[in-house]
TrEMBL record, chain A:
Signal peptide: none annotated. Keywords: Membrane, Transmembrane, Transmembrane helix. This is Putative ABC transport system permease protein. The lineage of its organism: Bacteria, Bacillati, Bacillota, Bacilli, Bacillales. InterPro entries: UPF0014_fam. It holds the Pfam family UPF0014. It is a multi-pass membrane protein. It comes from the Bacteria. It is found in: Membrane. Belongs to the UPF0014 family.
From TrEMBL, chain B:
SUPFAM superfamilies: P-loop containing nucleoside triphosphate hydrolases. CDD domains: ABC_PstB_phosphate_transporter. One of its GO terms (cellular component) is membrane. PROSITE patterns: ABC_TRANSPORTER_1 (PS00211), ABC_TRANSPORTER_2 (PS50893). One of its GO terms (molecular function) is ATP binding. One of its GO terms (biological process) is phosphate ion transmembrane transport. The lineage of its organism: Bacteria, Bacillati, Bacillota, Bacilli, Bacillales. It holds the Pfam family ABC_tran. Residues 5-234 form the ABC transporter domain. Keywords: ATP-binding, Nucleotide-binding, Transport. The keyword Transport applies. This is Phosphate ABC transporter ATP-binding protein, PhoT family.
Amino acid sequence: MSYLTLSLTLIFVLIPIILSKTLNLGLEKDTIIATVRSIIQLLAVGYILQYVFDAEHFIYLSLMILLMIAAATQNARRKGASIRGITWKLIVTFIFVEVLTQGILLGLGIIPPTPQFIIPISGMVIGNSMVLGILFLNRFTAEVEDHQDETELILTLGGTPKQAIHRQLINSIKASTIPTIESQKTIGLVQLPGMMSGQIIAGADPVQAVQFQLLILFILLTTAVVTSIMLGFLSYPTLFNERMQFLKFESK
Amino acid sequence: MNVAIEFKDVNYTADGLHILKNITGVFPEGRITTLVGPSGAGKSTLFKLCNGLRSSSSGEILIKGKKIDEYDPVNLRRNVGIALQSATMTKGTVLENLELPLTLQGERIDKDYAKELLHDVGLSEEFMERNAKDLSGGQRQKLSIARTLVNKPKILLLDEITSSLDRVSQHDIEELIEKVNKKYGTTMIWITHNLEQAINIGQYTWVMMQGELIESGDSSLLNSPKDERVQQFVKGELG
């Protein structure tokens, strides 16, 4: 695709801006910022990836992944601001999910150990983990705040902090992972996934594109469930002190 | 007089507010103590300190002669039960709520024992399969008391449990409190706004105001209080 052709795709940015302006939706500024950021970020990543692929050096590969984890943490931590030490909990979760998935993929020889495979898959894993982290933290802080009476009741009856927060934890894990599971049920019927569509447009064999897409879908399933559970079990103890007292909680 | 709970110069501060001020006093073992005082006196906070839901900022609380911090929090809360004014119910049936203290220990309640407990608080067994969240305020309060009794606590803290009940139900609960106290020798500490209840049912009384323990002693002190503020409170001149 030439840059001239690419520039024509900006029509798809103009449409929402015109509609927003006409209907007074106030979305013009955010749309423009989002467009400019996506152009700069993606072009930068394109050039960086080209450099990393050519260099084929472990350090560059690690730096790329660390950069992804840092950006994902920065984005997700605001949703869990009321949970003490959320930044480290997110970093540990993202690293664990990345090591787990890449460990299985590389360990079993499912993908070759090259940056061309590791970086895009890491991007999808960490990106999905970030979205799941945000969904989980959003729901968890609301559940904890809305059910403080129930938490305290269970403590008064001689329950442990884990028992006192169990229902809220399970509800939040379920609520955050349901979208991933549900969207996989209709995949291929309603929507063709972005990565698969991209490969097909680029001329790849559709069956091979589907195989890779399935690989990604299964990884995302693990990512979703592991992220929510891990964040949940890392977060709930900070709501209590060593005397098993529920600390005052206000979502921020 | 054996002592169930002893407060030694206890203070509690939260969010910059001095809620309990230099509390020194005892709750006698095996007796019914009523805790009276205007709203905002710190009575409910005092309960949370006794149950280990909060820790004092300074001073010492002794439960049966042993410092409260030396108890395992879970065991402490099973032995010092508390029925809160809010009578919070969890999702599920009346039976599920009733057996919650046992579920938390991985056990189930015996159906006959469940019926007996419900009967004791004035709820028929037909309630067992009802959704607990559909109960009226009074019914919830009764269930909350029955639920607290499941752990067979040595000390029972009751926070305004009859305030939302009609006269007949109030009488049932008063009888229940006396029955549990006599049958099991349970130490009962009962926050009430009803001074008549405090005098008739209570054997010992604490009068609290603005975070301070003003007077304590035999319940008859409410008939002839020494402190001027308590006199005003008894006359209904203070909230």
